[in-house]
Each structure stands twice: as C-alpha cells, then as structure tokens.
Amino acid sequence: MNIVEFIFILRKNLFYILFFPALLATIVFFLTRNTPLEYKTSTLLYTGVVSGYDISSPEGTKMDYNTTTNAFDNLTSLVKLREVCDETSIRLLAYNLMDNSPNVSKNAHDDALKLVPANLVSKLVDKSSFQKTFINIREYKNGSAKNPIKKLLSSNNPFYSVSIIQSKVQATRKSASDIIEITFTSLDPSVCYNSLKLLSQVMIEKYNNLKTAETEQVVKYFEEKAIEAQQKMEIAENNIIDFGIKNKIINLEEQTKTITTSKASVKEKIEKDEITLASCSATAKNLDEKLNMRNGLLESNSNIVAKRQKLANLNYKISNSEIYGLSDKDLEKNRAEAEALKQELKEMVNDIYRRNNTQEGLQGSMLLQQWLNNVLTIDECNSRLIILRKQLKEFDSTFDQYAPLSSMLGRLQREQSIAEKEYLNVLQALNESKLRYQNIQYSSNLKVIDAPSYPSAPTINKNVLLVIASFVIGVFLLAGYYIAIDLLDSSIKTPKRAEEFSNLKVIGSFPSLLNPKKTIDIDKFESDILEQITSSLMLQFTENKNKEAKLITISSLHKQDGKTWCATRIAKKLSETGSTLVMSISAKNEDVESESPSNQIVNFAHYHFAHNTLDKKDLFALTTDKVNSLGRFKYVIIEVPALSENQIPIELLRNSDVSLLVVDAEKTWRDVDTNLIELFKKATSDKQAMVLLNKVSILKLEAIFGFIPQKKKGKFIKPKKEYASSNDHKESEKKKAGKTTAKASNF
For 48-76, what is each residue's pLDDT tens digit? Predict the structure, then answer.
C-alpha cells in the first residue's frame, strides 16, 4: 500500500472516521463536564547528588549513569512513600485544625472541623503550638486500631487520604541537573500549597534520617570494635611486660647477643690461661731439676708457704674482680697487696739461697728467680681458670634458661603485633566511617531553592484535553481499522496484483459500478479506459495485417466474472473503427445499433457450446444465426465459456489474434486459478494472451490513474448500462436510425 491508496481509503470512509470519534468526544464531554477544578503548585529541591561537594574527595566524586539514575529514582520514590504521605496528611490536618494558621482558607478549616469530632478537636489541638498538635494527633492515630483519625487517612477524602496524596504528588528530575521538581494538585488552593510545603519538609527529614541512620550504625559498630581491639592490644602488651619482669628480661635479643659475646670471651681467656699454665708448669719443672732443689725444701718453710697461700687468695680475688667488674677500689688494694707479697717472697727465697749456696749462687739466684716467677704465674692461672670455668657454667645455665624464653616471648610478641594491627585496621575503618558520616550529613542535606507558591488560579481544565484525546484516539482507531481491513483483504483488487498472480499483462481494468458516487462521470471514465484497451488491441492487430477479420476470444476463470459485459463494451468501442461481430454463448439477444458518431453497428450472434464445438474450424458454423460472410466484419469477438466449467478450445484460441481472460478483482486468488492460468497460457501464445480486470474499485483506479472524471456542477446524468444483440441490427436497417439503451449485465 502506497500513500495514495492510504489517502483514498481515508477519503472513502471519511464520514465514519469523523462521525464516530465526534460521537465519542460528545459522550466524554457530557460525562466529564461536572469535574471540579484543580489547583497546582510546585517546588524545586537541590540534591547535590552529582555536582555536590565531597569531603573525601575535594575534586568531587565522578558517578556513572546507573549510579546517578539510581540515586534520583530513590529520591523520586521517597516522595510517594506511604510513611511520608501519612505524616504529611497528619501535619496538614493539624495545620488546618488550628484557626490561627497562615495560608489556610476558611473552607479548609471548616472542612477539617467537620471531619474530626468536636470533643476530639478540643483534646488534640493546642492553639499555641503546631508541633504539639501534630504530636497529639499522631499519637492518637497510632494509639488504637480503630479511631476517627486513622479512618480519615484511609478514606477517599480528597485532602487527607494517603492514597490520594500519593496519586496527586509527582517528582521528576529537571533535565540532567541536581534539581528535583515536586508538583502537587488539589481541589483547594490552600490545601495544595500547604500540602506541598509540609510534604517537602517531611521528605527532607526522612531522607536525611535515612542516609545518616545506616552510616551512624556503621560508626557505632566500629567504635565498639575499636574498644575491643584496644583492650586486646593492651592485654597483649601487659603479657609481654609481665613476662619480662618475671624472667628479668629487658631486651631478650640484645641480652642474648651480650651473653653469647661474653661466653666467647670467657672461652678465649680459658684457652689462653690453659696455655700459659701448661707453659709455666713445664718451665718450673725444668728449673727444679737444674737447681737440684726439691719442692719440699722451700715449702718446708712455713712463712713462705703462708705467704704463698695468701698470694693465691689475693690472685683469686683480683681475677674475680676483673671478670665480674667489682669495685675498682678493692681491685687496686688487692693488686697492691699481691705485689708486696711477691716482693717479700722474692727476698725470702733469695735469702735462703744466699745462705745455702756458694759464690756460684749468683747464677743460681737468677734461676731461682725464674722458678719463682713461673710458680707465681701458675698460681694466677689456676685461680683465673677456676673463676672462668665457673662463669662458663653460669653462661651455659643462662642459655638453657633463655632457649624456651625466646620462643615464648616471640609468641607473645606475635599476639601483640596481631592485636595492634587489628586495632589499627579498626581505627582506620572508624575514621573512614566517621568521614563518610560527616560527608553524608553535609551532602544529603536537601535544600529548597524554589519554595511552593500559593496557586491563584486553577489549572487548565483536563476535560477539554480528554474530549480532544477521545476524538483523536477514535480517529486513529477507525483509520487503523479500515487500513487493516484493506491490508487483510486477500482479493485481487489491483492490476498489479493481477499481473503478479497470473504472470500475464493486464490490458485494462473496468471499474465496479456498485454504488458509484453521483459526482463521477462513469461514461467518460469507461470511455477513457476503453480507449486504452482498444489502443493495446490495435498494437496487437498490427502483427497480423493480412487477415481480413481480427479475431478476439474472450473468456474468464469462473462464471459471472463479467466477460459478456466486457465483450459488449469492447465491441462498442471497436465498432467506431469498423463493423464488429460478437458471438455469445448467452441467450439470444436483439441487435442494437451503436451510438458511435460513425453510426457503425455492433452485431450479436449466439451459439451453443458443446464438445464437438472444439473441433469446428468454421466460425460461422458455430452460430445458429444467419451470418453470410466475414467480409463485412472487421472485428470478431467470440465469447468462450469459463475455464473452470468447460474444456479449453485450444484450436480456437490459437487461431485468434488476441485472447483476453476476464478476471474478477473482487474475488480471492486460489491455487485452482493458478492451474487454469497455466493451461490458458499453454493454449495461447505469450503475446496474444492478456488479462482484462473487471469490477475494480474506483478508489483503486483513482490511485492508479490519479484522476477520475467528475460531472459538471448542476448537471446530473444517470450512468448508462447498455447491451446489444443481433435483433437491434436488423431493426436499425429497417428504421435506419434509432437509439436504444443496452442493458448489459455486469457479470
């Protein structure tokens, strides 16, 4: 379907397309004419969701599309929340019950007093405080399952019904900004203004509480966890302190290093003293042999023995002081005493040698001095070795003590480290949650940047819009209905569809004469169509110029497709250029004289179609009328029975110049029609076989031709319906002039 056909369909059904929507609009008008007027006001809230300041990120937080959309969806949904509308309704009722409230109309105040019992009003209303009145009403409403306030909020009251408030409030985002527009409509201007003002306040409070409540719980949670983590950390630290005090540990690692170093130093000293002891013992033994002095001779002297014992004790004290780091004063005193004893021993030994040896004793005194030095060194080494070996045993004992302490201290330190890390992590989370809490407190503070205004005039009446909408919808529905009917129509309808179904060229299309418009000039329209058909026939006839009479066979797929009517119309047009004979299988007709200016005659003859008719080559042998010869006819049109009812006269079709197949445009194309077309094409040649479409809608032809001849204004001519027969021809010869109206059946 193209635009032209679309327009023609609308023109055809224009009356219905306009009448029924107008009727529907009238009904809507009468149903909605008593609808009360509504007042509307709006307010703008700044949210700061996208462009607001963020404490955690001074440059601002970048939000993607989904996050932004979700944030604004939450805000717009919050406006219609039942809890918000419920509190708004209670506040509005408290506001209207107080006679000193500003911007409250007398009607709103009186209506509120009528809805609440008088005894309850005196009980709930505190004229000095709106907040107390609101709290009283809210507590009374929540106090029992059934009470007048709760019933009022659940009713269909246009001012205080929660469900109606939800339906009257709308929240939308202004383009891509951070601003939300909230609109409210009501039947009373003061109720409209106060409802939106109170609803904005409730919404801001609920939004702030909702945003900060969850973060506040998070902060409280981390504060509790921080206290627990701090206690764990303190317990772990106290365990380490108690462990150090109990085991006399300040720094186990450093102490272990010091003990290890000291032990190594003691071992080194023991090794040196053992070497010195071994060397001195060997030297002293050698000197004893050289001096021929027995060890018992000198030791028999009690003074020498006593002093030597005393010197050994002093050496022990000196070694002990040097190793353990005792008082320097005692150490110096012991060293002085030891040096004095050494000198006394030397003098005593020298004196003994002087007494007991000869003059050769000078050399002997030197040997004796060496012996005494070695003996003294041996005593010193023995004293130091005793102390050093004792100290080495103490180091070994200390190592045995520190070995398990090290692992125990490591475990305590790990516990303390874990507790400290846990405390630091919780502390960091607490700081972040507090920062987020402060950020939400700052950013979630919705601000009214455009307060609601008191509506001074009602909004545009929606009744007019409903009437217009009902009319427009009706027009579209009916237009769609007629277009759908046309699209779903499976009939042939147009020459283009006929060519697609038959694969044959359409030579012409006759309009349907069922209820034609009186303004259409049918005669002129048919004449134009016949001109096109005859022009196409003439082009076909130029290929067979030698034949005296041009033979045209005309048939149809089914009965009552209009082949007789079409043959009559074509014969009338051809008679303008030469005499024409129409051989029909219908009942015997009377001859008629053509109305053409040339006064040519259309001759009609009939024949009986039977099986033997297919074999007759002499055309005049078929007819029962007396036709002398073909020489007097320029065109011969033979009507062939419907292809679906009889056998196809193959010889007759092949000898014809043109074979026309009449197709009814109002019928649906079926598979049997395709088979008949194939047989028809086999019986004829491609050039001589053509389709003649009959009963085409005038609107379809108008879409094809673009213009339909119209009658002149003030002149009405009834369309003619003509038919012709052979009897009219005879009568015309007798009268030589005369005109009759043909009664052609359009089937």
Answer: 776 655 555 555 556 677 878 888 888 88
